[in-house]
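Repro:
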Amino acid sequence: MSKVFFYPFFILFIFNYSWSQTPLGSSLKDPKKNYKNANGPSTSLVQEVKQNGLIVVFSCNTCPFVVGSKHFPGWEKQYNELYDTSMK
């Protein structure tokens, strides 16, 4: 009986911490570390953050959700719109 009671709370606990957001600079190990930028020289997260925040997109050019498929257009077509919106 105690297992039936324990498991739902354990699952809620795990989901609560796996979907949380990390504010920039709060618990990042090294926000000033330079990373290779896809469209220019190396940069850090601290250098790139703007007044409204920072959007970081991790994607893979072999993922069907990114490049699309027969029945799904893919997310990479939305990257330019996301960039334009974020620069406003």
